Task: inverse folding
Protein backbone atom coordinates (compact mmCIF):
# COMPACT_ATOMS: atom_id res chain seq x y z
CA UNK A 1 0.00 0.00 0.00
CA UNK A 2 1.43 3.35 -1.00
CA UNK A 3 2.00 6.03 1.60
CA UNK A 4 -0.56 8.82 1.83
CA UNK A 5 0.36 11.99 0.04
CA UNK A 6 0.60 15.28 1.93
CA UNK A 7 -2.51 16.37 0.09
CA UNK A 8 -4.46 13.31 1.29
CA UNK A 9 -3.29 13.85 4.88
CA UNK A 10 -4.52 17.45 4.82
CA UNK A 11 -7.85 16.45 3.31
CA UNK A 12 -8.43 13.69 5.89
CA UNK A 13 -7.47 16.07 8.71
CA UNK A 14 -10.02 18.67 7.55
CA UNK A 15 -12.69 16.08 6.72
CA UNK A 16 -12.50 14.67 10.26
CA UNK A 17 -13.04 18.10 11.82
CA UNK A 18 -15.95 18.80 9.47
CA UNK A 19 -17.71 15.45 9.86
CA UNK A 20 -17.30 15.25 13.65
CA UNK A 21 -18.22 18.94 14.08
CA UNK A 22 -15.70 19.03 16.89
CA UNK A 23 -13.82 22.09 18.12
CA UNK A 24 -10.24 22.10 16.80
CA UNK A 25 -7.48 22.74 19.35
CA UNK A 26 -5.38 25.86 19.10
CA UNK A 27 -2.50 23.73 17.81
CA UNK A 28 -4.76 22.33 15.09
CA UNK A 29 -5.87 25.84 14.18
CA UNK A 30 -2.22 26.73 13.56
CA UNK A 31 -2.00 23.78 11.17
CA UNK A 32 -5.19 24.90 9.43
CA UNK A 33 -3.98 28.47 9.02
CA UNK A 34 -1.04 27.22 6.95
CA UNK A 35 -3.46 25.83 4.35
CA UNK A 36 -4.97 29.14 3.25
CA UNK A 37 -2.81 29.38 0.12
CA UNK A 38 -2.91 25.68 -0.75
CA UNK A 39 -2.81 25.11 -4.50
CA UNK A 40 -5.68 22.60 -4.31
CA UNK A 41 -9.06 24.38 -4.28
CA UNK A 42 -10.65 21.35 -2.55
CA UNK A 43 -8.31 21.84 0.41
CA UNK A 44 -9.14 25.55 0.53
CA UNK A 45 -12.88 24.78 0.34
CA UNK A 46 -12.61 22.26 3.19
CA UNK A 47 -10.57 24.75 5.21
CA UNK A 48 -13.25 27.43 4.82
CA UNK A 49 -15.88 24.92 5.95
CA UNK A 50 -13.83 23.70 8.96
CA UNK A 51 -12.97 27.18 10.24
CA UNK A 52 -16.59 27.73 11.32
CA UNK A 53 -16.13 25.20 14.16
CA UNK A 54 -14.16 27.64 16.36
CA UNK A 55 -14.10 31.40 16.30
CA UNK A 56 -10.86 33.34 16.54
CA UNK A 57 -10.06 36.81 15.14
CA UNK A 58 -7.43 35.11 12.95
CA UNK A 59 -10.05 32.76 11.49
CA UNK A 60 -12.37 35.65 10.71
CA UNK A 61 -9.59 37.59 8.97
CA UNK A 62 -8.66 34.48 6.97
CA UNK A 63 -12.26 33.89 5.93
CA UNK A 64 -12.47 37.50 4.70
CA UNK A 65 -9.48 36.85 2.47
CA UNK A 66 -10.87 33.50 1.31
CA UNK A 67 -14.17 35.21 0.43
CA UNK A 68 -12.16 36.75 -2.42
CA UNK A 69 -10.56 33.45 -3.54
CA UNK A 70 -10.24 32.83 -7.29
CA UNK A 71 -12.40 29.70 -6.93
CA UNK A 72 -16.14 30.35 -6.71
CA UNK A 73 -16.96 27.42 -4.42
CA UNK A 74 -14.24 28.50 -1.98
CA UNK A 75 -15.64 32.04 -1.98
CA UNK A 76 -19.18 30.81 -1.23
CA UNK A 77 -18.04 28.53 1.61
CA UNK A 78 -15.92 31.28 3.16
CA UNK A 79 -18.81 33.75 2.96
CA UNK A 80 -21.09 31.21 4.62
CA UNK A 81 -18.55 30.52 7.39
CA UNK A 82 -18.26 34.24 8.10
CA UNK A 83 -21.52 33.79 10.03
CA UNK A 84 -19.25 33.41 13.09
CA UNK A 85 -17.72 36.84 12.50
CA UNK A 86 -18.09 39.96 14.61
CA UNK A 87 -15.49 42.44 13.37
CA UNK A 88 -16.39 45.74 11.74
CA UNK A 89 -14.16 44.96 8.75
CA UNK A 90 -16.34 41.99 7.80
CA UNK A 91 -19.52 44.02 7.25
CA UNK A 92 -18.36 46.16 4.27
CA UNK A 93 -16.91 43.07 2.58
CA UNK A 94 -20.25 41.29 2.83
CA UNK A 95 -22.15 44.40 1.69
CA UNK A 96 -19.94 44.51 -1.39
CA UNK A 97 -20.76 40.87 -2.09
CA UNK A 98 -24.48 41.54 -1.59
CA UNK A 99 -24.32 44.40 -4.06
CA UNK A 100 -21.82 43.28 -6.69
CA UNK A 101 -21.40 39.48 -6.78
CA UNK A 102 -22.52 38.00 -10.10
CA UNK A 103 -23.28 34.60 -8.55
CA UNK A 104 -26.63 34.69 -6.75
CA UNK A 105 -25.30 32.10 -4.26
CA UNK A 106 -22.53 34.49 -3.24
CA UNK A 107 -25.07 37.27 -2.78
CA UNK A 108 -27.44 35.04 -0.82
CA UNK A 109 -24.86 33.67 1.58
CA UNK A 110 -23.49 37.18 2.05
CA UNK A 111 -27.02 38.29 3.02
CA UNK A 112 -27.18 35.55 5.66
CA UNK A 113 -23.72 36.16 7.10
CA UNK A 114 -24.15 39.95 7.12
CA UNK A 115 -27.13 39.55 9.45
CA UNK A 116 -25.24 37.15 11.71
CA UNK A 117 -22.15 39.38 11.92
CA UNK A 118 -24.32 42.43 12.59
CA UNK A 119 -26.09 40.58 15.39
CA UNK A 120 -22.86 39.16 16.84
CA UNK A 121 -21.33 42.65 16.85
CA UNK A 122 -24.20 44.92 17.82
CA UNK A 123 -26.52 42.59 19.75
CA UNK A 124 -30.00 41.26 19.17
CA UNK A 125 -32.37 43.95 20.39
CA UNK A 126 -34.86 46.33 18.84
CA UNK A 127 -32.50 49.25 18.32
CA UNK A 128 -29.79 47.17 16.62
CA UNK A 129 -32.36 45.37 14.45
CA UNK A 130 -33.87 48.69 13.39
CA UNK A 131 -30.41 49.85 12.31
CA UNK A 132 -29.83 46.54 10.53
CA UNK A 133 -33.04 46.87 8.51
CA UNK A 134 -32.13 50.42 7.52
CA UNK A 135 -28.62 49.35 6.50
CA UNK A 136 -29.93 46.79 3.97
CA UNK A 137 -33.12 48.43 2.68
CA UNK A 138 -31.49 49.66 -0.55
CA UNK A 139 -29.86 46.30 -1.30
CA UNK A 140 -33.11 44.49 -0.48
CA UNK A 141 -35.05 46.75 -2.85
CA UNK A 142 -32.69 46.18 -5.77
CA UNK A 143 -32.38 42.38 -5.45
CA UNK A 144 -34.40 40.42 -8.03
CA UNK A 145 -33.43 36.77 -7.57
CA UNK A 146 -36.05 34.88 -5.54
CA UNK A 147 -33.48 32.66 -3.80
CA UNK A 148 -31.63 35.71 -2.50
CA UNK A 149 -34.86 37.50 -1.60
CA UNK A 150 -35.84 34.50 0.51
CA UNK A 151 -32.64 35.03 2.52
CA UNK A 152 -33.55 38.67 3.06
CA UNK A 153 -37.02 37.67 4.25
CA UNK A 154 -35.49 35.20 6.71
CA UNK A 155 -33.37 37.98 8.20
CA UNK A 156 -36.24 40.46 8.22
CA UNK A 157 -38.38 37.99 10.15
CA UNK A 158 -35.71 37.48 12.80
CA UNK A 159 -35.24 41.28 12.94
CA UNK A 160 -38.85 41.67 14.01
CA UNK A 161 -40.59 42.19 10.65
CA UNK A 162 -43.16 39.41 11.05
CA UNK A 163 -44.83 40.16 7.70
CA UNK A 164 -41.72 38.60 6.14
CA UNK A 165 -43.37 35.24 6.80
CA UNK A 166 -46.19 36.28 4.46
CA UNK A 167 -43.62 37.13 1.77
CA UNK A 168 -42.16 33.63 2.10
CA UNK A 169 -45.65 32.16 2.02
CA UNK A 170 -46.39 34.04 -1.22
CA UNK A 171 -43.31 32.50 -2.86
CA UNK A 172 -44.23 29.02 -1.68
CA UNK A 173 -47.86 29.19 -2.81
CA UNK A 174 -47.28 30.90 -6.16
CA UNK A 175 -48.10 28.21 -8.73
CA UNK A 176 -45.93 30.02 -11.24
CA UNK A 177 -42.83 29.33 -9.18
CA UNK A 178 -41.52 25.80 -9.70
CA UNK A 179 -37.81 26.40 -9.10
CA UNK A 180 -36.72 23.48 -6.91
CA UNK A 181 -33.89 25.41 -5.23
CA UNK A 182 -36.05 28.43 -4.42
CA UNK A 183 -38.89 26.36 -2.94
CA UNK A 184 -36.51 24.14 -1.01
CA UNK A 185 -34.76 27.22 0.40
CA UNK A 186 -38.06 28.69 1.58
CA UNK A 187 -39.01 25.44 3.33
CA UNK A 188 -35.57 25.24 4.95
CA UNK A 189 -35.92 28.84 6.15
CA UNK A 190 -39.35 28.10 7.61
CA UNK A 191 -37.91 25.12 9.44
CA UNK A 192 -35.20 27.36 10.90
CA UNK A 193 -37.77 30.02 11.86
CA UNK A 194 -40.13 27.53 13.48
CA UNK A 195 -40.28 27.59 17.26
CA UNK A 196 -42.78 26.46 19.87
CA UNK A 197 -44.63 29.77 19.62
CA UNK A 198 -45.09 30.05 15.83
CA UNK A 199 -45.09 26.39 14.75
CA UNK A 200 -48.83 26.19 14.12
CA UNK A 201 -48.75 29.15 11.74
CA UNK A 202 -45.76 27.79 9.82
CA UNK A 203 -47.16 24.27 9.60
CA UNK A 204 -50.44 25.65 8.25
CA UNK A 205 -48.50 27.33 5.41
CA UNK A 206 -46.72 24.06 4.61
CA UNK A 207 -50.05 22.22 4.51
CA UNK A 208 -51.34 24.77 1.99
CA UNK A 209 -48.21 24.21 -0.08
CA UNK A 210 -48.77 20.44 -0.15
CA UNK A 211 -52.38 21.01 -1.17
CA UNK A 212 -51.04 22.95 -4.13
CA UNK A 213 -49.66 19.62 -5.46
CA UNK A 214 -46.41 21.02 -6.90
CA UNK A 215 -45.91 18.99 -10.09
CA UNK A 216 -42.56 17.28 -10.54
CA UNK A 217 -41.27 18.49 -7.19
CA UNK A 218 -41.40 15.33 -5.11
CA UNK A 219 -38.15 16.24 -3.35
CA UNK A 220 -39.60 19.56 -2.20
CA UNK A 221 -42.82 17.88 -1.06
CA UNK A 222 -40.77 15.41 0.97
CA UNK A 223 -38.95 18.30 2.66
CA UNK A 224 -42.25 19.98 3.55
CA UNK A 225 -43.69 16.72 4.91
CA UNK A 226 -40.57 16.21 7.02
CA UNK A 227 -40.97 19.65 8.64
CA UNK A 228 -44.66 19.00 9.25
CA UNK A 229 -43.78 15.82 11.14
CA UNK A 230 -41.02 17.45 13.17
CA UNK A 231 -41.20 19.03 16.60
CA UNK A 232 -40.11 22.58 17.27
CA UNK A 233 -36.94 22.67 19.38
CA UNK A 234 -36.72 24.99 22.38
CA UNK A 235 -33.42 26.90 22.47
CA UNK A 236 -32.00 27.71 25.93
CA UNK A 237 -28.84 29.80 26.47
CA UNK A 238 -26.96 29.77 29.79
CA UNK A 239 -25.21 33.16 29.98
CA UNK A 240 -22.49 34.11 32.47
CA UNK A 241 -19.35 36.27 32.49
CA UNK A 242 -16.51 34.03 31.27
CA UNK A 243 -18.17 30.86 29.93
CA UNK A 244 -15.27 28.81 31.28
CA UNK A 245 -16.90 26.98 34.20
CA UNK A 246 -20.44 26.28 35.35
CA UNK A 247 -22.22 27.43 32.18
CA UNK A 248 -20.17 24.94 30.14
CA UNK A 249 -21.18 22.13 32.52
CA UNK A 250 -24.84 23.17 32.31
CA UNK A 251 -24.74 23.09 28.50
CA UNK A 252 -23.08 19.69 28.39
CA UNK A 253 -25.30 18.07 31.02
CA UNK A 254 -28.42 19.50 29.42
CA UNK A 255 -27.62 18.07 26.01
CA UNK A 256 -26.34 14.70 27.29
CA UNK A 257 -29.02 14.00 29.87
CA UNK A 258 -32.05 15.62 28.30
CA UNK A 259 -31.64 14.98 24.58
CA UNK A 260 -35.17 13.58 24.42
CA UNK A 261 -36.82 16.66 25.91
CA UNK A 262 -37.21 18.85 22.81
CA UNK A 263 -34.75 21.33 24.37
CA UNK A 264 -31.35 22.33 22.99
CA UNK A 265 -28.96 23.92 25.50
CA UNK A 266 -26.07 26.29 24.75
CA UNK A 267 -23.81 28.58 26.75
CA UNK A 268 -21.97 31.86 26.27
CA UNK A 269 -20.12 34.55 28.22
CA UNK A 270 -20.32 38.33 28.32
CA UNK A 271 -16.48 38.48 28.33
CA UNK A 272 -15.43 34.90 27.48
CA UNK A 273 -12.14 33.49 28.72
CA UNK A 274 -9.52 31.77 26.59
CA UNK A 275 -10.14 28.12 27.53
CA UNK A 276 -12.53 26.00 29.59
CA UNK A 277 -11.13 25.59 33.12
CA UNK A 278 -9.02 22.46 33.48
CA UNK A 279 -10.95 21.20 36.54
CA UNK A 280 -14.18 21.41 34.55
CA UNK A 281 -12.62 19.41 31.72
CA UNK A 282 -11.40 16.74 34.16
CA UNK A 283 -14.75 16.61 35.95
CA UNK A 284 -16.60 15.96 32.69
CA UNK A 285 -14.06 13.33 31.65
CA UNK A 286 -14.54 11.45 34.90
CA UNK A 287 -18.34 11.72 35.07
CA UNK A 288 -19.33 11.62 31.39
CA UNK A 289 -16.28 10.18 29.63
CA UNK A 290 -16.16 13.14 27.24
CA UNK A 291 -13.45 15.67 26.43
CA UNK A 292 -15.41 18.90 26.71
CA UNK A 293 -12.77 20.79 24.72
CA UNK A 294 -13.72 18.84 21.60
CA UNK A 295 -17.39 19.80 21.95
CA UNK A 296 -17.39 23.35 23.30
CA UNK A 297 -15.22 26.43 23.86
CA UNK A 298 -15.69 29.81 25.62
CA UNK A 299 -17.54 32.21 23.34
CA UNK A 300 -19.70 35.32 23.40
CA UNK A 301 -23.38 35.27 22.46
CA UNK A 302 -23.57 34.23 18.81
CA UNK A 303 -26.61 33.68 16.59
CA UNK A 304 -28.87 34.95 19.38
CA UNK A 305 -31.99 34.41 17.27
CA UNK A 306 -31.64 30.65 17.85
CA UNK A 307 -32.63 30.96 21.51
CA UNK A 308 -36.13 31.22 22.99
CA UNK A 309 -34.92 31.50 26.59
CA UNK A 310 -31.86 33.03 28.27
CA UNK A 311 -30.81 31.92 31.75
CA UNK A 312 -28.33 34.31 33.42
CA UNK A 313 -25.88 32.44 35.67
CA UNK A 314 -24.10 34.52 38.32
CA UNK A 315 -24.99 37.76 36.53
CA UNK A 316 -27.96 40.08 36.19
CA UNK A 317 -29.12 41.16 32.74
CA UNK A 318 -31.64 43.72 31.56
CA UNK A 319 -34.64 42.29 29.78
CA UNK A 320 -34.56 45.33 27.49
CA UNK A 321 -31.27 44.04 26.07
CA UNK A 322 -32.91 40.75 25.03
CA UNK A 323 -36.45 41.67 23.93
CA UNK A 324 -36.76 38.74 21.52
CA UNK A 325 -36.22 36.11 24.23
CA UNK A 326 -37.79 35.19 27.55
CA UNK A 327 -35.45 35.56 30.54
CA UNK A 328 -35.50 32.90 33.27
CA UNK A 329 -34.36 34.56 36.51
CA UNK A 330 -33.32 31.54 38.58
CA UNK A 331 -29.56 31.51 39.04
CA UNK A 332 -28.43 35.14 39.01
CA UNK A 333 -26.64 34.64 42.35
CA UNK A 334 -24.96 31.33 41.45
CA UNK A 335 -21.17 31.00 41.42
CA UNK A 336 -20.20 30.60 37.77
CA UNK A 337 -16.90 28.99 38.80
CA UNK A 338 -18.60 26.17 40.74
CA UNK A 339 -17.95 22.88 38.87
CA UNK A 340 -20.46 20.93 40.99
CA UNK A 341 -22.06 18.15 38.97
CA UNK A 342 -24.94 17.44 41.34
CA UNK A 343 -25.89 21.12 41.60
CA UNK A 344 -25.57 21.55 37.85
CA UNK A 345 -27.89 18.59 37.22
CA UNK A 346 -30.47 20.12 39.56
CA UNK A 347 -30.18 23.51 37.82
CA UNK A 348 -30.76 22.01 34.38
CA UNK A 349 -33.71 20.05 35.73
CA UNK A 350 -35.25 23.19 37.23
CA UNK A 351 -34.97 25.05 33.93
CA UNK A 352 -36.52 22.17 31.98
CA UNK A 353 -39.34 21.80 34.53
CA UNK A 354 -40.04 25.54 34.45
CA UNK A 355 -40.28 25.58 30.65
CA UNK A 356 -42.56 22.55 30.54
CA UNK A 357 -44.76 23.80 33.38
CA UNK A 358 -45.04 27.39 32.14
CA UNK A 359 -45.25 26.82 28.39
CA UNK A 360 -46.82 23.35 28.20
CA UNK A 361 -49.57 24.54 25.85
CA UNK A 362 -46.95 25.36 23.22
CA UNK A 363 -44.93 22.14 23.50
CA UNK A 364 -45.45 18.90 21.65
CA UNK A 365 -46.30 18.50 17.99
Result:
Amino acid sequence: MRNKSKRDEKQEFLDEIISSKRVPSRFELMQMYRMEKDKDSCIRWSLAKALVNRYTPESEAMLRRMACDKDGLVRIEAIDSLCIGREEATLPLLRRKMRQADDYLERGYAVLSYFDVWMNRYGYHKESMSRYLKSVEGLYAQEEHLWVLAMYERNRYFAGEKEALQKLKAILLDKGINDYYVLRAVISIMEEMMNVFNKDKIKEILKEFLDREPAGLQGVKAEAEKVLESEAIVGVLFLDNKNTGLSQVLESIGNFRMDDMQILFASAGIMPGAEIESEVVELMKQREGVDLREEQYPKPVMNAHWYDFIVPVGIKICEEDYPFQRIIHMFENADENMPDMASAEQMVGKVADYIWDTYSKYLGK
Notes: The radius of gyration is 21 Å.
